């Protein structure tokens, strides 16, 4: 499979990390909306009464500092560096826009979802 076909197959919504966070939130008794179109950047998870938004970022796509996020494809490197840098700029802009609307924002990274107990504690602290 060539790279463009591979990248086309990658989803932007309803990803495995997103589903994991949603499942945990639901088990904890929280109810939420997905991808609220009226908010900047359509946050992954929105809890309107709590004025809270949760962003679930893939480490590669959003340029996280972990091993997976720091890995750059060997082919077409300039393109990927520009793309990921622009994604990070856009993330910062949308974070500021959400906060300007009075929303608290929690950013969860794909690599940090492996520890279920830590994730649950993080969500409880943020929403509690």
Note down, in words, how this protein is organized:
The chain has 128 residues and is α+β, with helices and mostly antiparallel strands. It has four helices and four strands; from the N terminus they run H-H-E-E-E-H-E-H. The N and C termini lie far apart (46 Å). The model has no long low-confidence stretch (mean pLDDT 90).
Please give a quick description of this structure:
With 128 residues, the protein is α+β, with helices and mostly antiparallel strands.
Count the DSSP helices.
4
Biggest β-sheet, characterized?
4 strands, mixed
Mean pLDDT, as a whole number?
Answer: 90
The general outline is: globular
Radius of gyration: 15 Å
Structural class: alpha+beta
Cα-to-Cα separation, first versus last residue: 46 Å
Q: Strand percentage, roughly?
A: 5-15%
Largest sheet, spatial ordering of strands: 1-2-3-4
Give the H and E element order. Answer: HHEEEHEH
What is the strand tally?
A: 4
Helix content: 40-55%
Unreliable spans are none
Topology overview:
Layout: H1 3-8, H2 16-27, E1 33-34, E2 45-47, E3 52-57, H3 77-100, E4 104-109, H4 116-127
Parallel strand pairs: 3-4
Antiparallel strand pairs: 1-2, 2-3
Task: List its traits.
globular; alpha+beta
């Amino acid at each position: 499979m060539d790279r463009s076909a591979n990248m086309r197959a990658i989803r932007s919504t309803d990803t495995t990390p997103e589903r994991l966070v949603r499942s945990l939130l639901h088990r904890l008794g929280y109810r939420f909306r997905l991808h609220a179109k009226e908010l900047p950047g359509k946050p992954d998870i929105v809890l309107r009464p709590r004025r809270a938004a949760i962003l679930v970022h893939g480490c590669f796509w959003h340029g996280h500092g972990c091993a997976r996020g720091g890995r750059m494809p060997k082919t077409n490197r300039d393109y990927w560096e520009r793309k990921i840098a622009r994604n990070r700029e856009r993330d910062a802009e949308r974070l500021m826009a959400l906060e300007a609307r009075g929303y608290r924002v929690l950013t969860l990274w794909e690599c940090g979802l492996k520890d279920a107990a830590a994730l649950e504690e993080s969500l409880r602290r943020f929403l509690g």
